[in-house]
Specification:
heterodimer; A: 176 residues; mainly alpha; 2 domains; B: 160 residues; globular
């Protein structure tokens, strides 16, 4: 009971606030509720299918096979795989760092690590599907098309910048 | 809005059927997993939308248009890049807000910059990132991405 209250309490208070506003003609509350209702209907109309797809992606894609092909000699193929690999991930940017550490440990090149990181954060397929739902296919494709070459360029820049430096990815959980 | 949703459902159902044809067990597992993730995200998602609806009611559309609209130019882009860099909101939660802002007069240019910095530049996550890459490298990465986000915004502005 307490757990549910903690999770849904805020929503419950808002629903009560909305109803009270409605019955007492409190304009501010009615307006806010209407805005919320629009957003909610928009969300519930397509988010379930997105999460079904995310789940399917998780079930089908093997997560550990790519890193072999991301080393310093991997060339264009490695760059391509870094982009593809990153797109099949899920989670926020800070969730990418531990993955980057594993990639580094397994021998991925500096360039590919940063390409992976860039594409991880902004080209994940689950996210792109949500983006399509909210902002349209045209916007999503345009943003992806502009983003990929820029992030590949950042990969090359980081590689160039770190060429003569002793760059290491460290795992903070291991150091303690 | 509507054709996009229809497109997603048609593509989604086609993929589910295809997956079911090849492997029933995996499909079942996947769908269950998907619902589990959805259940976990439902209340944070809705909570943010409640907060956003209040903010959107308090801030008048004219202000949004003035600071985030097509006329706001480099100022609007820089402002959204800074806001995107210092906030830490999961991306999918920001899309409903982005779509509302667009309806209220914000430009695609500004929205693209905001989303990219939100995803790529993290002032809040910087200490964590430093632990993995070192302070200087993390700083350089964030700075490069900040400028990349502004370029992305400008190019989106040209295209759309």
């Amino acid at each position: 009971m307490k757990k549910y209250l903690k999770e849904y309490g805020f929503i419950l208070v808002f629903i009560i606030f909305g109803l009270v506003s409605y019955f007492y003609n409190f304009t501010f509350g009615v307006k806010a509720s209407k805005t919320f209702l629009n957003m909610f209907i928009e969300m519930i109309s397509f988010i379930p299918i997105v999460f079904i797809l995310v789940g399917l992606l998780d079930a089908w894609i093997p997560k550990k096979k790519f890193e072999k092909y991301m080393g310093p000699e991997s060339g264009l193929k490695g760059t391509f795989l870094s982009v593809i690999f990153s797109m099949f991930q899920a989670g926020p940017l800070y969730g990418a760092f531990p993955i980057v550490y594993i990639l580094y440990k397994k021998g991925a090149s500096v360039k590919n690590i940063f390409i992976f990181l860039g594409c991880f954060s902004s080209l994940k397929i689950p996210m792109l599907t949500i983006e399509t739902g909210y902002l349209g296919l045209e916007f999503t494709l345009a943003r992806a098309a502009i983003t990929i070459p820029l992030f590949i360029a950042i990969g090359y820049l980081m590689d160039y910048y770190l060429k003569d430096k002793d760059f290491k990815v460290t795992d903070p959980t291991e150091a303690q | 809005m509507f054709p996009n949703i229809l497109l997603l459902w048609i593509a989604g159902i086609a993929i589910v059927l295809l997956s079911h044809y090849f492997d029933k067990e995996k499909t079942k597992q996947g769908i269950n997993k998907g619902f589990k993730i959805f259940k976990g995200l439902f209340s944070p998602f809705v909570n943010i939308m409640i907060l956003a609806s209040f903010i959107l009611i308090i801030v008048p559309p004219e202000i949004i248009e003035q600071y985030l609209g097509g006329e706001s130019g480099l100022f609007g882009i820089t402002l959204s890049a800074i806001i995107g860099s210092i906030t830490l909101i999961p991306a999918f939660i920001v899309y409903p807000i982005a779509s509302e802002l667009l309806e209220r007069g914000a430009s695609y240019m500004v929205i693209a910059t905001f989303i990219t910095t939100l995803l790529m530049v993290g002032v809040v996550t910087y200490p964590l990132e430093s632990k993995y890459f070192g302070k200087k490298v993390a700083l350089v990465r964030n700075a490069l991405n900040f400028f990349a986000a502004i370029i992305i915004g400008l190019l989106i502005g040209v295209i759309m």
